[in-house]
Amino acid sequence: MDIDDLADRILAGERRALARAITLVESRRADHRADTIALFDKLKDHDREALRIGLSGTPGVGKSTFIEAFGMMLTAQGLKVAVLAVDPSSARSGGSILGDKTRMERLSRDPNAFIRPSPSQSHLGGVARRTREAIDLCEAAGFDVVLIETVGVGQSETVVAEMSDLFLLLLAPAGGDELQGVKRGIMEMADIILVNKADGDLKSAATRTCADYAGALRLLRKRPQDPQGFPKAMTVSALEDTGLQTAWDEMQTLTQWRRDNGHFAARRAGQARFWFEAELKQALLNRLEREPIKGIVKALGREVEDGTQTPSQAAEEVLAQIEGRRPML
Asked: Cα(147)–Cα(67) distance, rounded to whole angstroms?
């Protein structure tokens, strides 16, 4: 693969080159990983910056419908929008449907939009392991807004907050006990809560749900990165395209305040450190999948099953092998 040519084509905004580069970074092959590192070395000096927006919510809340309506509104304003959608992978086969392009048919045909579905595989937190690097590639390709749609499985989806500038939580009205619909952990990460489906018979229920969440947000501890009035809850209708422009105006207001007060740059710097440490931990875990450590782990696992070794003893032996020392136990 010609990495120099691929980097030049990405910087020129070629969608096919961008898609090929994302496929490259998602690969687990060692030679592809080396190519990925070389590619990012070629792209590191670009000064392009996109607004990264993470979006999570419970299944059935209308995330894809919202993203399509929101993305169409942004492209109509002359902005280039990239959507990185993460689909859940089967625990049995490991496969994913990757149907987001089908669900966002209008947006997928927009020349100013780019949609890339990716499988979550075994990665937790609602995002794929290489989503962060895909965001960097979209920025290098000149996109103005990058939307990261998570799997949509609930409270664990806070990892997306570590790769986005704004974190939106999309909720549905009349979902039973609304304040228990999404637990405190993910609510504390949200910058804006959007109650979708505020149309038709659900409009009054959406207004009540929004008021409930607005009250709940006031009870949370004030965060230094928020101006007065944030985080906030709002109603939107992706079906009728209502509330989308107001929501976008609030996102821009919050982003500009954070830029002016130094929180935007500080947040990105902290995220860079977070992902350095995450990458280091993952690299160390990968050593357990290579010989001779893989064989040692397998043999010790059998001994733990037989009861001849305790889990603590077996783990200490593996660590001793990795570090080249005598076991302490």
From this structure: 8
